[in-house]
Design brief:
The chain has 289 residues and is an alpha+beta fold. It has seven helices and 15 strands. The strands form two sheets. Strands 1, 2, 3, 4, 5, 6, 9 and 15 form an eight-stranded mixed β-sheet that branches. A hairpin with a 2-residue loop joins strand 11 (204-211) and strand 12 (214-221). The radius of gyration is 20 Å and the shape is globular.
C-alpha cells in the first residue's frame, strides 16, 4: 500500500470515521448504518476493516463474528460483508490487504467463513480460498385461515422496538442453523428495510412478507415451540404457498429447492463447509450482514 494509506478497524464509536464509512457505503450500495448505530445495535457484532487515505475511508471489508446452533453443536463462524472500494482507488489490491488482515485475526479462531457476493465479483473470492456453495430454501402449499390473525406491528417507536428485542432475546431456537444472540443483526433489518414486515400472532413475533397468494417468512421468534402450520394459517385463507427464509427443524411436508436469491451467491471456506451442501440447508436470511 502507499505510505499515505493506513488500516483501521473496529472504529464504529468514532463519529468522523463512522460518517466516512457511511458515505462510502452510500455511494457503493446505497446503505447508511447510522440509525442502526444510534439504536445501539452496532457493537462488536460488526467490525469494519478499512483502508484510509488521510481521514477518508477508501476501501472496506466488514467482519461479523457469529455463532450458529446446528445439530446440538455451536459453530463459530465469521461472515464478511460490505466489501467496497471507492471508484478512484480501484485495482490497487486494497481488498486483498483487508482480507489478509481479517484472516490473520480470525482464521484460527473460527470453524470457517462465509459471504454473499453479487454477480459482478464472482471471480474475486476464490482468490482468497472461498468456493461457491448452493443454498436450499423450503416451501409448501398451504391452506390459510385460522382463529388467530397476524397483526402488523410497526417498528416506529422505541417502545415497540424494545418489546420486539425482548421477544428475540427470549426466543427458543425455531429452526436449524439458528443464529445465537441475533437481536442486533435482526434489528438492522427490522428498523429499516423490514420495519413494516413485523407481525405478532399471540405472543409469537414473525417477520414476513405477503405477495398475493405467496407468503415469505424470514424469521419466527417465540418463547415456546412453534407450529409453522399455525403461523402460516394466521396470515389468512388467501395464502396458498409459504416459503421459508430458514431451514425448518422438521422437513416433513416441505420441499427443498435451490435458493433463488437474485444476484447473490454464497461463498464458504473452512471445516464447516463440508457438511453445508450435503444437508440441504441455508443460512437464515436475516443473518446476512
Amino acid at each position: 500500500m502507499k505510505e499515505t494509506y493506513c488500516i483501521r478497524k473496529a472504529y464504529q464509536e468514532e463519529a468522523a470515521l463512522r460518517a466516512s464509512f457511511n458515505r462510502l457505503a452510500g455511494r457503493v450500495f446505497g446503505l447508511n448504518f447510522e440509525d442502526w448505530y444510534q439504536g445501539g445495535y452496532w457493537k462488536e457484532n460488526y467490525i469494519p476493516y478499512s483502508v484510509l487515505d488521510g481521514d477518508e475511508i477508501i476501501a472496506n471489508v466488514s467482519a461479523s463474528p457469529m455463532r450458529f446452533l446446528h445439530d446440538g453443536k455451536i459453530l463459530n463462524l465469521i461472515q464478511l460483508g460490505t466489501v467496497m472500494t471507492d471508484d478512484d482507488y480501484r485495482n490497487q489490491g486494497l481488498i486483498r490487504v483487508l482480507m489478509e488482515e481479517i484472516d490473520s485475526d480470525w482464521g484460527k479462531k473460527t470453524d470457517g467463513a462465509f459471504l454473499f457476493a453479487n454477480d459482478r465479483v464472482l471471480n474475486l473470492y476464490p482468490k482468497f480460498g472461498f468456493r461457491p456453495a448452493a443454498e436450499y430454501e423450503y416451501y409448501k402449499e398451504v391452506c390459510g385461515g385460522s382463529k388467530l390473525n397476524a397483526e402488523q406491528i410497526l417498528m416506529d417507536t422505541r417502545e415497540r422496538q424494545q418489546l420486539f428485542v425482548d421477544a428475540i432475546r427470549n426466543s427458543l431456537p425455531s429452526h436449524d442453523l439458528w443464529l445465537l444472540d441475533p437481536e442486533r443483526i435482526v434489528m438492522f433489518y427490522a428498523s429499516s428495510f423490514l420495519s413494516r414486515n413485523v407481525y405478532r400472532i399471540g405472543e409469537v413475533y414473525v417477520i414476513a412478507e405477503t405477495n398475493g397468494e405467496n407468503l415469505f417468512i424470514s424469521a419466527v421468534f417465540s418463547k415456546d415451540p412453534i407450529d409453522l402450520e399455525e403461523v402460516t394459517a394466521a396470515f389468512g385463507k388467501e395464502i396458498k404457498c409459504a416459503v421459508l427464509g430458514f431451514t425448518p427443524f422438521s422437513k416433513t411436508g416441505w420441499t427443498a429447492r435451490p435458493g433463488t436469491h437474485e444476484d447473490t451467491t454464497l461463498f464458504v471456506k473452512g471445516p464447516f463447509s463440508a457438511f453445508f451442501e450435503s444437508e440441504e440447508i441455508q443460512f437464515p436470511v436475516l443473518s446476512h450482514a
